[in-house]
Amino acid sequence: MPHLLLVDDDEDILSLLDAFFRKHGHTVCVAEDGKAMFAALENQTFDLIILDVMLPHEDGFSLCRRLRTTSTIPIIMLTAVADSTDRVVGLELGADDYLTKPFDQRELLARVKAVLRRTAAAATVAQHDETRPLLCFAGWRLDVVRREIRSTDNTLVLLSSVEFDLLLAFAEHPRRILTRDQLIDIARGSTHVAYDRSIDVQVSRLRYKLEQDPKNPSIIRTIRNAGYMFVPEVTRG
């Protein structure tokens, strides 16, 4: 059974979601703030975190940022602000999905299932795919089996599941112009619903982690009015 960590300071929402997800076959742990969340993470293993933005002491954005320095666990963020700017910020910080309050519990369940499916499918492909275990480009080494990327000095760079899938899509189609729709289809499957700026946000995150100068990228180049191109030569190890 998927193990979820629900982080929200609203006891009513925690109680409702706890009961709802347990009814649909999930194991659930709840936390009312960041301190309780990190305490739970130290003692248990979770498949996904549902993280509210408006929390006491430290907001969800800050907690997401801290999580992404040490973990690639999938995160779905919740917010009471119906503003696309907040959604972009959440994705830029490494969240896998975003939902605005008030929401239909069934929609949240569907999003949880979709994120878990993508994570499980990626892990299964990595375990069984022996034909492309290592992709090398511009001094970087992309390990498909371990879902890791390391720099020339062997430093491990943490990528979220979405970031890794997008980078893998680029590395497997080097020196080709790829539209945003093509990238969504290759990286996540054509059934994934993405809004217009999601790919741009993830590309920006990849540039920040991989490029020496993210403002003048040499690895992932923007092709005006067309999409993106992965510039370096890619070799298989």
Describe this structure in words.
The chain has 237 residues and is an alpha/beta fold. It has two domains: 3-124, 3-Layer(aba) Sandwich (Rossmann fold), CATH 3.40.50.2300; 129-236, Arc Repressor Mutant, subunit A (Orthogonal Bundle), CATH 1.10.10. It is 41% helix and 21% strand. It has eight helices and 13 strands. It has helices spanning 11-23, 34-43, 60-67, 84-92, 105-128, 161-171, 180-188, 198-210; strands spanning 3-7, 27-31, 48-52, 75-79, 97-100, 134-137, 140-143, 148-150, 156-157, 177-178, 220-223, 227-230, 235-236. The protein has a five-stranded parallel beta sheet with strand order 2-1-3-4-5, with helices on both faces. Strand 11 and strand 12 form a beta hairpin. The longest helix is centred in the middle third of the chain and has 24 residues, at 105-128. It is elongated.
Short overview:
The protein has 237 residues and is an alpha/beta fold. The chain has 8 helices and 13 strands. It folds into 2 domains: 3-124, Rossmann fold (3-Layer(aba) Sandwich), CATH 3.40.50.2300; 129-236, Arc Repressor Mutant, subunit A, CATH 1.10.10.10.
Offer a few descriptive terms.
Rossmann fold, alpha/beta, five-stranded antiparallel beta sheet, five-stranded parallel beta sheet, Arc Repressor Mutant, subunit A, single chain, elongated, 8 helices, 237 residues
